[in-house]
Amino acid sequence: MTTPLLTGHPAFKFLAGLASGMPTLTDLFQQNPKRAEQMHIAAPALTLDFSKQRVDAYVLSGLEQLFIQLKLPSAIDGLFAGAEVNRSEGRAALHTRLRLPDESLDRDFPEVSQQLRQMEDLVCKIHAGVWRGFSGKRITDVVNLGVGGSDLGPLMVTQALKEYALPEARDLRVHFASTIDGSQLFDLLEHLNPETTLFLIASKSFTTIDTLSNADTARAWLERVCPDPSLMLRCHFIGISASVDKMEQWGIPSDNQLLFWPWVGGRFSLWSTVGCAIALDLGMPVFRELLAGAHEMDEHFRTAPPLENVPVMMALLGIWNVNVLDIRAHAILPYDGRLKYFPPYLEQLEMESNGKSVTQDGVPIDYATCPVLWGEVGANAQHAFYQLLHQGTQPVASDFILAANRYDTAAEDVSRSINRKHREALVAQHELNIANCLAQSRVLALGNDAVDLTDNPFRFYPGNQPSSTLLLERLDAFSLGALVACYEHKVFTQAGIWGVNPFDQWGVELGKQVALQLQPLLNQPTGDDSVVLDSSTRFLADKIAGFRRESQENK
Ligand SMILES: O=P(O)(O)OC[C@H]1O[C@](O)(CO)[C@@H](O)[C@@H]1O
């Protein structure tokens, strides 16, 4: 099947024709005072207000037509039914299967429920202190060794939901180390006790050098104190992968292997046994609640009509911004310190998925695809890059993410021993945070029209920067699951419209190959002819070798 190119479609041409006459956001709000009432939609656990996007009813209907003309409804059915949506690798992408309710899993996909149960069993043993280190001591610390999708998802979720950790999980500390230079692991190992530390080696392929080099360092650290290698592997390493063979080769005992499948993309894998770090840090019921929230969002995505469908609407607004308004930058601005790792998580999800320039058929694309996406906790970003958003020369679209309720539950009082005064102070902080979030999207949209300012060029705010606000009633496991699934489906929908494959990542392969090619050259003198290097790489390699020699000589 040939994937049609976006720009040739009648609906796209219609949309392109609307761009030049599009009023500013100030005008749009003046023309229709009920704009926000008409331009918000709801999905499980969240509401999307898109009234600050530069769209009107004509644009929305053109986007809906585009969605239909590009056959996205059948693409979505295909995703859920297990069609080969990842064509370059000949695979389905069935992360949605991982969050089906237990009854359907047991009935239709017993291999998934079996792995979930095995994970639960390991988690319970660790929490209960039944799983012990080589010297018989209880496990106090777990280190997740993984990178990309095998790190960012669990890291993001555990940071976001810390306050929901169940009593059985509170005595266990969960850490993450991903960097190939070993610096995170180096810092951790300084403080950890090898007798009571357990490592999760999370790698879909179990070949990723970043993760395996960290795993080798962890093993060397343990070998210093544990004389029995098989006891050490049994008590201190759990493997999480789609490759049993590779786990076997590394030495992971079969009882310590947690599996997932080639049809789970790395950046879509937090719902699989890659979520083990989440379950260990927060408790298995919290992990299951996360799955439940994602499943509800799956159902919404599968069944809601396009203009009432939150992930579809987010995707369509993105297409309008990127391909019609030519806005190539997208900021993710959670007004919630707990979502600190949400922007990096989305950077991988969106840019590794849709940073592509050929269609599923390998045909070069002549229009923009994924924008540059970055972000930061909103209130901190105000003191970093908002200057550019307000007065720079780049058009930027933003997503504001906000939870209405915070610091208001008895559970928080118990878990953090909060007294009344302390809580009142925190609630006041939350209110300040909300005010800042709303103020920023208002000023970005309306600029100087938001308030009456003097005529001073340095205080000129042009406004007209579009944004959406995703409002959660509260941030908890269920709503976070729904939020993440929402972005996953946005990514899939945009990929369908751009005609690209969101489930491969060939772009990162060449760099890995070249690194392997270069490594042996680092210790060879100039003049080795096995690989002809460009002069910059040769210069840097020689310079580094020189510095390292000097350092050796000075020892
Ligand atoms: O889980 P693995 O196989 O170690 O891969 C880690 C990451 O590396 C990539 O393959 C490429 O960066 C990502 O897609 C993936 O999440």
Automatic annotation (TrEMBL):
Biological processes annotated in GO: gluconeogenesis; glucose 6-phosphate metabolic process; glycolytic process
Protein EC: 5.3.1.9
UniProt GO MF annotations: carbohydrate derivative binding; glucose-6-phosphate isomerase activity; monosaccharide binding
Catalytic residue positions: E352, H383, K512
Catalyzed reactions per annotation: alpha-D-glucose 6-phosphate = beta-D-fructose 6-phosphate
Pfam families named in the record: PGI
Keyword Transferase: no
Main location as per UniProt: cytoplasm
GO cellular component, one term: cytosol
Protein family (similarity comment): Belongs to the GPI family.
Name of the protein in its database record: Glucose-6-phosphate isomerase
Organism of origin: Oceanospirillum linum
Lineage: Bacteria, Pseudomonadati, Pseudomonadota, Gammaproteobacteria, Oceanospirillales
